[in-house]
């Protein structure tokens, strides 16, 4: 991993940890898979820190530019569920 996670200097340490944990979950979805419920928990904490959709999109875009991992398809798969307990995305 040779990239940084997006965050705001206005956030508390706990908020930064929650956001980084969420983006680590996105990485796991592409690398080895992540439990749907675990990702949902991480996403809920992320949304407490970043409640605005526009702000969410900005952080998703920054993360994708840095890492190459797109967050939106992972969230879409998580919400759809489709009976899958594990979210595993294919790399581009």
Q: What's the topology here?
A:
Elements (H helix, E strand, L loop, with lengths): L12 H19 L2 E2 H14 L3 H15 L3 H10 L5 E2 L5
Antiparallel strand pairs: 1-2
Helix pairs in contact: 1-2
Summarize, please.
By secondary structure, the protein is mainly α. It is 63% helix and 4% strand.
- The amount of helix comes to 55-70%
Total strands: the figure is 2
Characterize the overall form: globular
What letter string, H or E per element, gives the SSE order? HEHHHE
**Mean of all residue-level pLDDT scores:** 93
End-to-end Cα distance, whole Å, is 17 Å
What does it look like?
It is a single chain. Strands 1-2 form a two-stranded antiparallel ribbon. Helix content is about 65%, strand content about 5%. The chain has helices at about 15-30, 35-50, 55-65, 70-80; strands at about 35, 85. The protein has four helices and two strands; from the N terminus they run αβαααβ. It starts with 12 loop residues before the first helix and ends in a 5-residue tail after the last strand. It has about 90 residues and is mostly helical. It is globular and about 40 Å long.
For this entry, give a set of tags.
92 residues, mainly alpha, two-stranded antiparallel sheet, single chain
């Amino acid at each position: 991993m040779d990239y940084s996670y997006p965050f705001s200097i206005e956030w508390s340490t706990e908020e930064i940890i929650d956001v980084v944990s969420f983006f680590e979950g996105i990485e796991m979805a592409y690398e080895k898979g992540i439990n749907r419920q675990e990702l949902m928990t991480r996403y809920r904490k992320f949304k407490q820190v970043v409640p605005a959709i526009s702000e969410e999109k900005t952080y998703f875009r920054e993360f994708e530019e840095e890492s190459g991992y797109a967050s939106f398809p992972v969230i879409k798969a998580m919400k759809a569920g489709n009976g899958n307990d594990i979210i595993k995305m294919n790399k581009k």
